[in-house]
Design goal:
By secondary structure, the chain is an alpha+beta fold. The protein is built from 13 helices and 10 strands. The protein folds into 2 domains: 160 residues, NADH Oxidase (3-Layer(aba) Sandwich), CATH 3.40.109; 110 residues, no CATH class. Its EC number is 1.17.99.6.
Length: 311
């Protein structure tokens, strides 16, 4: 066994020990196939007000511009599927996306990924590398797909045959040559459930999402008022949306996560519709102490609640 294979096995074993569900490795190279797709998506203004999507175009496509001498992209998946789906417990209640039930995933993922990066440095040598979780111009789903962790489905989320699509993705880009995994196939087949179920028809065609119509965009990224054309289509979602994933047949394989930080606190579990409508700064701080929901601030959440309550 060569050094590349040996190091790759060592890294994957440590990733499992840290708690990641899957780990795959791809060669760090220019994303030639993705370049025209990204350009067209931006040209059609499908990013809405997410102007940052157009920034650092070259860096999104070339990992060597993020880490000098980059040779490998290590992708990891961390399951966040909850033991209890709060949206199912009380269907008439307001809903937040499952990924935001517990502590902000940026913090949890970064801690675990830095542990893995430190392990690589301690056990393999002084390498140049950086960990990325959603906070830099890295096409995480593309790299995860290239490293054999799944395929990008028609709803543009990554799907893994063993656990579905409710997971976070992170990348470590390093200047170390490793053994690379082969991509898997696309197993969506003729299924169109996500396209048919999307309340705002944001999935405009298979594998293309108009971000400016997506409920997740409308409730999180959009800073202005939610356009009237979406009134009556929010289906009680006030932060994010899980519809396209909930209807995906592959999520019948989703299993509850094993990460305590992702558990919802009792305050969130006990929130009822009237509590949401009357939410104060004090309640907001109790319900979302370290949550990703803080991104909207209380004003943004109140806007979403008011808009959803008009249905």
């Amino acid at each position: 066994m060569g050094f590349a294979e040996k190091y790759s096995q060592l890294i994957k074993q440590k990733a499992r020990e840290i708690g990641f569900d899957f780990c795959g490795i791809a060669k760090a190279e220019f994303l030639e196939k993705e370049a025209p797709r990204l350009e067209m998506w931006l040209k059609n203004n499908m990013q809405g007000e997410m102007s940052y999507m157009a920034n650092h175009f070259d860096k999104r496509l070339n990992p060597k511009l993020l880490v000098e001498g980059a040779k490998s992209v290590i992708s990891v998946l961390l399951n966040y599927f909850p033991k209890q789906d709060l949206a199912q417990t009380n269907p008439d209640n307001f809903k937040i996306s499952k990924y935001a039930y517990g502590e902000d995933y940026h913090f949890v993922m970064k801690r675990k990924m830095n542990e893995l990066l430190n392990f690589i440095r301690e056990n393999i040598g002084e390498i140049n590398g950086r960990a990325f979780v959603d906070s830099a111009p890295v096409m995480d789903k593309v790299w995860a797909e290239r490293s054999g962790l799944g395929w990008i489905g028609k709803h543009t989320n990554l799907i893994n045959r063993k656990i579905g699509s409710f997971f976070f993705i992170g990348e470590i880009i390093i200047d170390l040559e490793l053994a690379y995994d082969a991509p898997t196939g696309d197993y969506c087949g003729t299924c169109r459930r996500c396209l048919e179920a999307c309340p705002t028809e944001a999935i405009v065609s298979p594998y293309v999402v108009d971000g400016s119509k997506c409920i997740s965009y409308l409730t999180i990224e959009l800073k202005n008022e939610i356009p009237q054309e979406f009134q009556g289509k929010m289906e009680n979602w006030i932060f994010g949306c899980d519809v396209c994933q909930d209807v995906c047949p592959w999520n019948r394989f989703a299993k509850p996560h094993q990460t305590p930080e992702f558990e919802p606190n009792e305050h969130l579990k006990n929130m009822q519709k009237k509590d949401w409508l009357e939410i104060t700064e004090e309640v907001f701080a109790k319900v979302f102490p370290k949550s990703a929901v803080k991104r909207t601030k209380i004003k943004g959440l109140q806007r979403n609640i008011q808009f959803a309550s008009l249905e």
